[in-house]
User: Fold these one by one.
Assistant:
Number 1:
Amino acid sequence: MPSFGMAMTSSSPAYVDVVFPTALETPLTYHVPDAWRGLAAPGKRALVPLGKGQTTGYLVGTRERPPISQTKDIHEVLDAEPLLDAHLLELTRWVAEYYLCPWGEVIRTALPPGIDSLTRQVVRITSAGRVAMDGEGFLRPGERELMAFLRVREEAPLPGLSRRWPHARAMAHGLARRGLLEVVGEVRPPRIRPLTIPLYALAPGVNAETAPLSPRATKQRAILRALASAKGGLPRAEAAAGSPAALAALVRQGLVRLTEVEVTRDPFAYPGGLDPSEVARELTPLQSEAVALVQAAISEPQFLPVLLHGVTGSGKTEVYLQAIEIALAQGRQALVLVPEITLTPLAVRRFLARFGSRVAVLHSGLRGGERYDAWRRIRRGEADIVVGARSAVFAPLPRLGIVVVDEEHDPSYKQDETPRYHGRDVAIMRAKLLQAPVILGSATPSLESFERARAGRYRLAELPQRIESRPLPRVRVVDLRRLRGEDRLLSPPLCAAVRECLERGEQALLFLNRRGFSTVLLCEECGAAAGCPHCSVSLTYHSGRGRLCCHTCDFERRPPERCPQCQGSRLRYLGFGTQQLEAAVRERFPQARVARMDRDTARTWRAAARILEDLERGAIDVLVGTQMIGKGHDVPNVTLVGVVSADMALHLPDFRAGERAFALLTQVAGRAGRGDRPGLALIQTYNPDHYILRAVQAQDYAALWEAESQLRREQGLPPFTRAVLAVVSSPEATAAERAAMELATLLHGQGIRSDDVSGPAPAPLYKVRGRHRWHLLICGRDGRTLHAKVHEAATHLRALRPARGVRVDLDVDPASLC
Ligand code: ADP
Ligand code: ZN
């Protein structure tokens, strides 16, 4: 790996190290021709020859001497300014090394998506070029033509020139090498047309009461008054209030001014005014303690991870807000990670209400150009606070002084494709590199974070009570074992609770983590279930479209008339999903306004936001949904939460199943009774005595910790060890199995004891998109050694070129084994 020390001191390097946004693992060294010497610097992109073509790479380091004698020349530097500063380069390198993935892939993840398509190459004539044209410098006829063209135009985009002169590209580079032209990467403004609407407002200095109008102009006077009380102005129809002529007259007299206001349909866009009710609250003593801890680390400055463990509604967000205020007062910036922004609009809106336009929100609803705009605004230092999901951890904040990770336990922080980084852990590393505090907040901390707090590596701040001593929701378990079939969807106790809730005019959430109508189509003659041809899962029936769908690969088909196995005709739908739950609720409570929120009804973030808004303004009485409804929204009138089935979550084939179920059920239950009325959560299950459910009922994190930590310690699992999951897969079943066995042998060869490997075993989800998958979970006390050994073994296996189509994926700190 190249040295950063060198990179930062050398201003016009002769050689550069380049990484690529592909699977290529090691950096390649290129020579920098004189024309590009001044421009080549780490953190920029360059066009370089690779294989038979040329490709965009990222400059990550510089050298005076090449490590090998044969180096190729870079073709062009694409950026005038580095896209990544030294700090972010170092962070991305850490991610690459730790998560065993190519550095270039991490850099690609850290940059806004589509940035390459937003860059174009522009050719400009230099002053040396002008001199050469004026004098008798040697130029070939084609070159002279090109130069003449550029002398008039000053500059032109390279693709355009290529259309005019077939060899423009080669000519331009040749001329650039001689210093007569320069070829630079230039950012093209994103193709987003902001929507503007005309707004009418009082002209400056005009007083609605004393403005000189004829006494008969009552309509005009009324318009002035209306405009005086409207902050920022009114759209035409409202301003005119039925008299467009009067409005036009006012504009002619210069009393009313027309302005264009840019509107955006982004609900996270800065709304215009700070919300006066959103002021800093006086902190409780425990909140103050937490803020004081962080304050010391901001001023020092010092790396300080703080685990803020507080029940839902205990005032964690208030702690973040005030800690951030302190950082801003010292001229620093803040980074706030939230699990899924579209599902937590309320939390985000609190940041906007308190800090206004100083906040930039990075969310998945931003289109390429918008996201790129936000990214550039952040890089220019124009936003003091960035709120975003996982990938926002790479936001280019130049004066970052505090990092917050809300709901630090949330599995969505782990990316499930390469680079498989964990947003929380990268955030911690970022704070460490910057010597800054990082607050990890949760009502149900991950065992990893809690263990580190216990071991003294993180500071622990606890908020055990809700603000104003509001009660936590009561949690009751409903035993499904004694109920008849149809009652198992909506049990009598749950129905009674919904009815009472509706009678009080309050709202209810019903949670079921399965979308669709029926989860299995079973043949009653041979017992076969309709399965996906590409995955080892059964197909779910979706009633709206009348199709069977695979939730793993999105395969779809019409339901068969007869069983494909035995041609039997007695086919039966079993198992229920949210569609069926919604239908059942409508049937039982025909007067209630029922809505559903899952990936089918909330395909886009806008749709999700709309449903949550409806819930918030009371337009929904009962909201049915998947875990989408369990996130951090906070609707005071929701007093009942029903969990239709807890059993799937309890029995996932994953060592974190218990921990996950506890967090999920606690979060979902926490949606009830956030206002001053007490809430009730009802959990339906076939396992009423399960230790996880008892811990949820008692809202007892300590009980969960005791039980789970003991199991994990005995089995040598995280958080007491580090883990890597190796997934060996192939379209061919035997090839996958053979390669998995081979990997086990190679791991042995690296000195890994078989006690520390579970597997090889068929993955719980054995077949996905036609690939047969085998798992090896490798644990070890020391992360670095473990990672090095596993990486070595996997590299060996790949070098052995096992049967075609075999793939080995390494997942460091795997968040899910399913
Ligand atoms: P959490 O993030 O832990 O769920 P919040 O910070 O959202 O909790 O606080 C819950 C509610 O209590 C919010 O409405 C918040 O405005 C209010 N709150 C928080 N801290 C205080 C305080 N010190 N005094 C009064 N109200 C507070
Ligand atoms: Zn499938």
Note: Residues 11 and 455 are 45 Å apart (CA to CA).
Number 2:
Amino acid sequence: MIELAFSILASDFAHLADEVASAERGGGTIVHVDVMDGHFVPNITFGPPMVKALRAVTKLPLDCHLMIENPDNFIPDFAAAGADMISVHQEVCPHLHRTLQLIGDHGMKPAVVINPATPVDTLIEVLPMVHHVLVMSVNPGFGGQKFLPLALDKIAYLAELREAMGLNFRIEVDGGVAHDTVAQVVESGADMLVAGSAVFSPGKTEENARELLRLARAVVPAQV
Ligand code: DX5
Ligand code: ZN
């Protein structure tokens, strides 16, 4: 199933509950929460208190994308705040297997993220333990960047590996996913689509989400 994970990074934080409700009315089924620490990425956003606030206003799964160093230190706090899925960057996890286990031990779905410069092959050993792999299609840190087409081959390769290894992890894509790029990512094999700036826009959020999903699902007729 193709799902829209709308990134609240592009929303109006002063009206967060309404923004989430609009994106959900447009068909969004996952809330993507971009956590940035100002070290791993050159920007700061929010942490577990934001997850707790979201948990109080939506039943949708909360997909926390941790762009932070030492993610192990924060996993218990995200679990307590109500996160459903946690993705950690391969680039900051010297003991990635242990970190993914820790996420699972806290009752959340573990996932791993790779930057544009990180090869898919660095993940082969942990693919059996992840709920999804997140392929970055921009360098993380900011919303509204241009889609990097190099992500497409990585998505396709992951889909091949999944088949060859007999696994069922999902493939998520993040960065620059918009009305003009969504078809390519779905064709390549992504089924969790993160989008921020292509969704949130005053008065148009619901319509933007609906149209993005329509374009995505049109690529795979069986899903319409
Ligand atoms: C970027 C974040 C993304 C971001 C996507 O570092 O991980 O989730 O919100 O924003 P858009 O959809 O605007 O590229
Ligand atoms: Zn993200």
Note: The first helix runs from residue 16 to 25.
Number 3:
Amino acid sequence: MAKILIVGAGFSGAVLAQQLAAHTDHKLLVLDERSHIAGHCHTERHQPTGVMVHVYGPHIFNTSNDVVWNYIQQFGKFVPNLNRVKAVTDRGIFSLPINLLTINQLFKKSFNPREAEAFIKSIAVRIDEPANFEEQALAMMGSLLYETFIRGYTIKQWGCDPRELPASILKRLPIRFTYDDNYYHSKYQGIPFDGYTAIIERMLSHPNISVKLEQRYDRTWNQDFDYVFYSGAIDDYFACQLGRLGYRTIYFESEVFNGADYQGNPVINYCQESVPYNRIHEHRHFTPWEDHSASIYFREYSKETEAGDIPFYPKRLARDITLLKKYRELAQNEAKISFLGRLGTYRYMDMHHVIQESLDMASKFASHTGPLETFPTFPNQHP
Ligand code: UDP
């Protein structure tokens, strides 16, 4: 029986704790500096509307991974949910991700899938090896679609020139030559019936798991444990001694609407650079099975993370990757610790990636014969 410290009570830490409790006899302490479990997925009922609010922004669970889907459902019921985003642009309101309806409406055409594909090919900018986000977008869709839906939103979201950003970010946003307007291309998609926090609570309820909230971690505590799993920000672990990695944070202006429906859709994106926010989320639409007479919505803004802000999105600009390498080298000198999750490994991961990697990490730890790596690698790891 070992004493194990898990820093962070989001999906990374909770899945790991749940699995180690189920498959070993280790004593597990899960710490979180916030006053609640579930990290960025935390949900709570807003009073007085009674609407279930995704406090750090909406999370729609989606995955094509059978293992993850079967696993998560042990901890709560998921109600099927498709994410149909609308986009406000200078040229009108369209459906996202860019699909056949978007293309036909923007270009005032009535293409079938093959015609649309040929048309987009004909307007795409010829760039043999796109080296950054903007080049990737121009090569994929040409300049009108890029200017209408992508450029302004991306500048607001990331706070930099899209030519500085990695092309990989755009892979999250497909172009479809069908009328399928579901934001995600995943086999399974849903919203937890009673919220994410209830799911994480069930994961953490085991006699060998103790949870301490409002507890800022200090790395001198490592000596009191046989092993540490750290899912906080890797630069924070080292008190940012080499400098801060670039993260974007998001913040919300929330408003109550005294009526049943403020905007008619869960998420509306604002793609123009001139509108200061990126999206408006109306939470009642994430639980369409519930009735509420008033509604709450969040305007989402993005900004650079400063001391005290919560990091959300790793920027991964060239200078960040250089700094990350240095932090990883420092981390390799630390004994008996592994880093995990979006912040611990500084990668743009979704919930299902995080869950899969924590499942892999737990099984590697439970069955290992030698020491676990500081940054374990797994088959099918998210890049
Ligand atoms: N994006 C965009 N316009 C949109 C939505 C997304 O340009 O209306 C770009 C933007 O650069 C964003 C990326 O696509 O960062 C990924 O979008 P996604 O919706 O997956 O971001 P998330 O939900 O993780 O914030």
Note: The longest strand covers residues 247-257.
Number 4:
Amino acid sequence: MTRLLIIGPPGSGKGTQAVHIARHFSIPAVSTGDIFRTNVSNETPLGVEAARYLDDGALVPDDLTNALVKDRLLEADLQPGFLLDGYPRTATQVTELDNMLASQSKRLDAVVELRAPDSELEQRMLQRAKEQGRKDDTIDVFRRRLDLYHNETHEVVAVYAGRGMLVSIDGSGDPGDITERAISAVEKFLAGGVKP
Ligand code: ADP
């Protein structure tokens, strides 16, 4: 019954780490970015609406995003636990998530924050642009997403830090080492609230 969030800037390897951490705790990883991208490529009504925000490196409006997460959190596979990747990203989304969980009498166990210097994030984004060809992996869009992270999502990190739930991980270096660091820090935290 583990409920986790993972927060990190664009290029921090958040999606990759989410999959490994979730596997370790035997919970599904739910990425709002992946859900939006799937909807965009399938040209669903949500995808058509969300595409322009994704392409611009802007946040999808809170009402659309909150409705999507609200539905997803009610699905059967997430009842035993989950790792949310990419949500919440704004203070409003934090409040919404609080309400969604309260209405199901559930609470979060820990929030993983991946940290890495901007210069390393930019290098990784350029690499990913070559490998995956994501439309939002261009230097201008990346910088916009990074600015948004520092300006908006920083607030989300501060809220969870204030609640004593934040487990901050050094997200630079080898991806396998980062996974190990993250898993052992979360386990320690869950066992006794010991922060790394
Ligand atoms: P990254 O961490 O590299 O920014 P994500 O896959 O998490 O990538 O998100 C990609 C895009 O999806 C974001 O730039 C944004 O447009 C949209 N998105 C994802 N999650 C949210 C959210 N919680 N609120 C608003 N927009 C979101």
Note: The radius of gyration is 16 Å.
